[in-house]
Amino acid sequence: MLGPVILAASRSDKMRRFISAAPGTKQVVDRFIAGETVDQVVPIVEDAADKGLEVTLDVVGEDITTPAQAEAARDAYLELIERLKVLDLGPRAEMSVKLSMFGQALEGGHELALANVRPVVEAAAAIGTTVTLDAEDHTTLDSMFAIHEELRKDFPQTGCVIQSYLFRTEDDARRLAEAGSRVRIVKGAYKEPASVAYQDKAEIDKAYVRITRILMEGAGYPMIGSHDPRLIAIAQELGRQAGRKLDEYEFQMLYGIRSDEHVRLAAEGHRMRVYTAYGTDWYGYFMRRLAEKPANLLFFGRSILTKG
């Protein structure tokens, strides 16, 4: 059970310094992080479009401690949107945001996060795209869902994320699966207590299937976030059973993972979106990718050994 240990390390400044300095870290980080700047990520969006793929862009960074940092996060997204506008890439790229980056954990954080994220959502809509609010640990979700509901009053295309490992999520899915909604289902990648979340992988997978069925049978637009071939096949079958056309839901996978599968699903006629993270504050995002799959950790370990 290395996952919980890695997730705990994602909050450790000591581990952050150690891993950042490890000789093989850059090789592995480059697998999951598309670059550090807008200039580096734009060609990736263009390449994805050429392959029939779409993207969702995440400017990484979560440990915001001042309002000024939250405003800087807002401005980073506004810069990204301006570049997408100039290159006419808006319809191919949406944005994913973590409200922690926009000041959610600060004093008055709910109002601060809403005030900072609203201009991003407005600017995204102006270039023909939208924003999805990422789910973080369970203590932040009531605030995230309230902000999501508020934003949808003016920008109904605003999406949100739900996590199958949380006990509450089936009820959340029923509430969210309404006409016009956009909901991404993922397993979840935070260290959560047994009082609120399934701890067993098999139970998380079963919940994922139940929630996917709810979304497919609902009136909204499901976004299936998974690299698991079995869950992808089940989602396809549930879509067929619900009478959905291939463009009435989409699959989402991480940049750098199963890239051939991205192209295969798009070639079959599915909408396929690549979750593409970039930026300098990559540590928390990177550690959750290691925790999600043992193969990622093994890859990291081999890189350190071969570079050391």
Automatic annotation (TrEMBL):
Which class of enzymes does this protein belong to?
Answer: oxidoreductase
Q: Which GO terms describe its molecular function?
A: nucleotide binding; proline dehydrogenase activity
Cofactors: FAD
Ordered alphabetically, the record's keywords are: FAD, Flavoprotein, Nucleotide-binding, Oxidoreductase, Proline metabolism
Catalytic activity, as annotated: L-proline + a quinone = (S)-1-pyrroline-5-carboxylate + a quinol + H(+)
Give the pathway listed in the UniProt entry for this protein.
Amino-acid degradation; L-proline degradation into L-glutamate; L-glutamate from L-proline: step 1/2
Cofactor note text? Binds 1 FAD per subunit.
Which residues constitute the signal peptide according to the record?
Answer: none
One Pfam family from the UniProt entry? Answer: Pro_dh
Proline dehydrogenase domain residues are 45-298
**Has UniProt tagged this entry with the keyword Cell cycle?**
no
* Alphabetical list of PANTHER family matching this protein: PROLINE DEHYDROGENASE 1, MITOCHONDRIAL (PTHR13914:SF0), PROLINE OXIDASE (PTHR13914)
Q: What is this protein called?
A: proline dehydrogenase
Native organism is Streptomyces globisporus
Q: What is the lineage of its organism?
A: Bacteria, Bacillati, Actinomycetota, Actinomycetes, Kitasatosporales
